Amino acid sequence: MMQQITVLGATGSIGLNTLDVIRRHPGRFTVYALTANTAVEQMLALCREFRPRIAVMADDRAAEKLERSLAGEPGTQVLSGQGGLCEVAAAAAVNTVMASIVGAAGLPSTLAAVRAGKRVLLANKEALVMSGKLFMDAVAESEATLLPIDSEHNAIFQCLPPGQVRNLAGAGVRRILLTASGGPFRNHTVDELQRVSPAQACAHPNWAMGRKISVDSATLMNKGLELIEACWLFNTRPDCIEVHVHPESIIHSMVEYVDGSVLAQLGSPDMRTPIANGLAWPERIETGVEPLDLFALGRFHFERPDLHRFPCLRLAAEAFESGGTAPAVLNAANEEAVAAFLGRNLRFCDIPVIIERTLAEIAVATADTFEVILAKDLEAREIARQHISHVH
Ligand code: NAD
Ligand code: MG
Hints:
Elements: E1 3-8, H1 13-23, E2 29-36, H2 40-50, E3 54-57, H3 60-70, E4 77-80, H4 81-90, E5 96-99, H5 107-115, E6 119-122, H6 125-142, E7 145-148, H7 151-159, E8 173-180, H8 190-193, H9 198-202, H10 211-219, H11 221-233, E9 241-245, E10 251-257, E11 262-266, H12 272-280, H13 294-297, H14 312-322, H15 326-342, H16 351-361, H17 370-391
Parallel strand pairs: 1-2, 1-5, 2-3, 3-4, 5-6, 6-7, 8-9
Antiparallel strand pairs: 8-10, 10-11
Helix pairs in contact: 2-3, 4-5, 5-6, 6-11, 6-15, 10-15, 11-14, 14-15, 15-16, 15-17, 16-17
Bound molecules: nicotinamide-adenine-dinucleotide (NAD) and magnesium ion.
Nicotinamide-adenine-dinucleotide (NAD) binds at residues 9-15, 36-37, 39, 58, 100-102, 105, 123-126, 150, 207, 209-210, 212-213, 271.
């Protein structure tokens, strides 16, 4: 049966990789909708190639521009705003939604896809970090199929017995070994970290990604968000997960069982592998990913993460332990701090400082509704911006 797909965040790194896999399997997938924020020219080219039923621009003016550009061409209706994003995430004709908007902006549409019971391919880890329990409750209630796209979580998913991904003790799992590349500053001293630029932070040694996640990889906040993501996806706790810095980024994560077996998923660092795994699951399809050449690689290395130089990983673990709205505050403060760093309004080493101060200032509340979480997100952004203007 033909799968109808909505790609949320189609112009991003994950979106474009998803479309590349889709392009290779025209008999299997059709694009129902594509969405972007402001990138009209890129969206126009994607609409001409994939002819989606609907194109959504989150930004109203960008939507008007796209509509004018598409005038006279048949087939694609243009929508705008969060309403448009949620509509194409939940549309009856859609089977599968790739949730690849970056940051908290992706929560409403990702959640709309979950509530509509879709097969949801989750790249937008921030949505799950912010709203963990409510998000997983929504998955259980709607019987949506949630498939992890983050390479580490996809690796863990592949190393767990089918149907047991939220029952680790029952499956005989002792620990999850979450791998991390260590980012571009793995060997920098505290002193060197003071002076790094946005361009250096975005030049990841193994992966080409969006700017926000690239900075998160450099601070290790990405691993912190992934630790929280893993706890929710696999129904476990931080003390059952150990981060292993593995600079080659070939082992995408591992699962250790009580009998001493350790299962790993390996592959070239190319997001088309986890994306195709989600798109075709439980089947396998071609991706164009370079096959692994273990002889050329020769050897693998492992190190413990250095929480002194990279405190973001510790802050994330602590926020998960605090529970309630703390992870949403962590995420919002991080988004603001990263944006300020990318805009050259904050030094790299002040990113964790801003997050820690914001967390200290906001009382943890019970995260029992999405409204509470979104209100904390706004409050945290406000406070983080105040701290950023003070340290700048
Ligand atoms: P990106 O910056 O390349 O793309 C982001 C996409 O989201 C774009 O299409 C953009 O138009 C859209 N977008 C941005 N702000 C928006 C807004 N306010 N409203 C609506 N749409 C908006 O990011 P990316 O690297 O593709 O990452 C996307 C998500 O996937 C992130 O949550 C990231 O953590 C996760 N992820 C990415 C990778 C990777 O290799 N790039 C790996 C694992 C997980
Ligand atoms: Mg990852």
